[in-house]
Amino acid sequence: MDAIRKDFKVTIVDTYKFITQEEKGQSMVEYGIILALIVIVGFIGLLALSGNLKSLYQEGVFTKIKNAFLGKI
Question: Where are the transmembrane segments (predicted)?
Answer without folding.
Answer: 31-49
